[in-house]
Amino acid sequence: MAILTKDEAHALMKKVLSYSKADECEVNLTGTNTNNVRYARNAVSTSGSVAQTTLIVSSAFGKKLGVATINEYDDASLEKVVRRAEELAKLAPENPEFVSFLAQQPYNESHTYSPKTAAITPAMRADAVSQSLQVAKEGKLISAGYLEDTVGFAAMMNSKGLFAYNTSTNVNFSVTMRTEDGKGSGYITRGYNDITKLDTKKTTQIAADKGIKSATARAIEPGKYTVILEPAAAAVLLENIFFGLDARQADEGRSFLSMAGGKTKLGEKLVDERVNIYSDPLNSELPTSPWTGDGRAQEKVSWIEKGVVKNLTYSRYWAEKKGVKAIPAPDGVIMEGGTKSIEELIKGTKKGILVTRLWYIRPVDPQTLLLTGLTRDGTFYIENGEIKYPIKNLRFNESPVIMLNNLEELGKAERTVSGESFAHYLIPPLKIRDFTFSSLSDAV
Amino acid sequence: MTGMGTTAAMLAGIPGMGNPISPERALETVDVALKKQLADVALNAARSKGATYTDIRIGRYLNQFVVTREDKVQNIVNTESYGLGIRVVANGSWGFAATDKIDKESIAKAAETAVAIAKENSRLMSEPVQLAPQKGFGEVSWKAPIEKNAFEVPIKEKVDLLLGVNDAAMKGGANYVTSILFMVNEQKYFASSDGSYIDQDIHRIWPTFFITKIDPTSGKFETRNALSAPMGMGYEYLYARPQDKIKGVTTLYKGRYDMLEDAKSGAAQAAEKLVAKSVEPGKYDLVLDPSHLWLTIHESCGHPTELDRVLGYEANFAGTSFLTLDKWQSKKFNYGSKLVNIVADKTQTGSLGAVGYDDEGVKCGQWDVIKEGILVNYQTIRDQAHILNLPASQGCCYADNWSSVQFQRMPNISLQAGTQKRSIDDLIKGVKKGIYIIGDGSFSIDQQRYNFQFGGQLYYEIKDGKIAGMLKDVAYQSNTQEFWNSCVDIADQNDYRLGGSFFDGKGQPQQVSAVSHGSATTRFNGVNVINTARNIG
Q1: A53 CA to centre of own chain
Q2: Domain boundaries, given as residue ranges, for chain A
Q3: ipTM score of the complex?
Q4: Which residues pair with B228 in a beta bridge?
Q5: Which residue among B73, B449, B532 places its CB closest to the CB of A365?
Q6: B163 in contact with A at a CB cutoff of 8 Å?
Q7: Low-confidence residues of chain A, pLDDT below 50?
Q8: pLDDT digits (tens, 9 = 90+) for B25-75
Q9: Which residue among B20, B76, B536 sits closest to A68, beta carbon to beta carbon?
Q10: CATH says A6-211 is which class?
Q11: Domains in chain B, start-ordered, CATH in brackets?
Q12: pTM for the full model?
């Protein structure tokens, strides 16, 4: 089954609901076509094509929920999947946290689909990779990269009258360019809804330049330094704040947003007052789905405003228990930036380190959101407003909360992809003082 | 990389793992004769389209997860993923296609697609695939030697166990507890144009919990995770016997696990952590328990000896390796002290990586990777063996699903126990200023596997050969070669235990695999310890 239109999805799910005998029934229908090309050592290593469609039926009797899935769509199969969900619901223990399904919600118009991305052909994919390989050959560098594009639809309908539908496209590209002697390495990652924004040749050239410039790096003493984090480096630290906005964890006293005496930091100043973080499904640079998998509308939400925690995310159960609006976790997060380019940030830096990528980020202490990880694929020493020389990679131990309190300057925000979670963000480059590096690494 | 983080992170991947089914359906199997017929369709179709080599994997991947918190069952998930993947060599290049439509026509079409992709890829090829020779085994089978199929145990028994664990933790003073049982059954059928038809039945289990204790006055909280190991075993792993327990500062488990007992200790230890002394940073001699050391072995021995990393195939994601081929060719690269013997083993009973044959039909075995501190070998698959002048693959090929293309994955990689009779107490007795670390915690290592940082679950200060109380805010940092050269003492075989990862990630698109790492308690001298406490107001 290919990508269904709104009408086709509506008709199919209406039929599924007609078989339901449960107190409540909800149907989620998704379909994706994903294609990828992977290359290493300047040649294609693997490529794949996966088409998947899934129909999920959730049936509830009181607070007992059963879920069943199928990927066949004839009438008998559709009825079978509904019966199976109902059987499982009857067998399930009562879940006191079950919340009745939602009625129809108002949704914004979606901007997540690009017809040009949906129309990509195997030849276009091969051409995009071939252009990247050409940069490697011309520069006598060794490339390893990955190109993946997805077109998909998602729809849901329930017995309370809710119906939602969305189509989306996505393309992710990343490439690492290493010098032949293994002494230099550069990386870049890009992600868009619209493939026409992706220029694999130009993008690969940036990684190639970093790879060449990062060769024969010098060692510096670990310690506290002023750093300029490129958006890809900032994203993997900041997303730990975005993922940690759950109100229940904070209320229960086991989050960096918890305070003594059972209080939370909601409404409290957490970071520098120049920090504004929000999500907006209608943002033209980072459009996201107007609804969530449980039918809630995604709206523009301010998470941190002028350094103060403005909103937390809630499950529908926890929101009901607390008597507040059930704000869902965002799909894409935006941090407001300034107007300066990375070059301008470097120009205004007396002594510091340019970090282009951070890697293997892991939590060390959930209480303070302390993280550890390392720089990778191009780290440079800055002196008197200029990049002086490449430096060896460093391990850091730093909390993004402390980091955003040590904010010096914000650059111009751009769309980036997390190398850890693969989520997309709009994040500015950040200039941070007293960023803690604790040891050196010989890795290139 | 190994993904073990929070409960939410672990559950996030469930929808992609398969379709929900009834528990009873997991006990059904697919007829071997039918699988052979389907396999022959693929082999013949691919050959007729020009493939010079073909393999097909027909896989049924079953998962069951039971998730509880405090007195509630949060989720019971049964999933099944059933389909097949066909891999071919045509025009010297690899091609792969997969389908969940198990009929002859769909299989022939998938085989045709795989050949077409291979031919397309051959235009961007730098050198043709060279496969190490592999004889066909005919029709053979392998079954994990489990005592009790976890999928046959009623859900109620599992729920009762977990709710009992939670009750014990809450009565012990915990504020919150989440407990989970993960169970996996891979029913894999492999056939190749070499003449193998291999039917395998693989089981894995992982019981675990997360306890949180909060001091409401200060707002501080501490956690204590289970000291269990994920195992290649059936439900018998949860039937602990007295002989499976190692008594000491806390009870440790060997081959079987007492979840209830560990939860009681866990609640008390989470409270103890809240008032423990914050570590003074500096150099310490570390005594590392196998429940902790497995992860250091995984990251600093397992990953750098993967040949695909060494060659650059993972450069864009997981990284490369400092163990370059010249170091192996020199036959004298000093990876660790003379005590350090690291063995790769795909046959170890009860381990996560144990199978009869890998995912390209190679019979599994064991081999030395580090011998008396010297790098002697890597981990290879069929298209890499020629690079090391090996006559055959070492059987390290694995795909996490029928829809994923198989590639080089880590076998069980383990540190051999000491040959002298040494107990944990003997090791601790010799330490003047040290820290005894139990359980795995935070972990991070660079992309070439030099610089790492690890935390744990429990830290005990050692002063003049005796345990002097609990510490907190501990993490150690080192360099792989320096660390393994500081290895000075290893307990004997009686203390040898397995740890492991259920979700080791690698590749683009990322695939997971499960792998075990064994060791006995081991001492490392003069390791740099940092204090991880911070204040965010």
Answers
A1: 22
A2: 6-211, 217-444
A3: 0.94
A4: none
A5: B532
A6: no
A7: none
A8: 777 778 899 999 999 999 999 999 999 999 999 999 998 899 999 999 888
A9: B20
A10: alpha beta
A11: 7-275 (3.30.2290.10), 278-531 (no CATH)
A12: 0.95
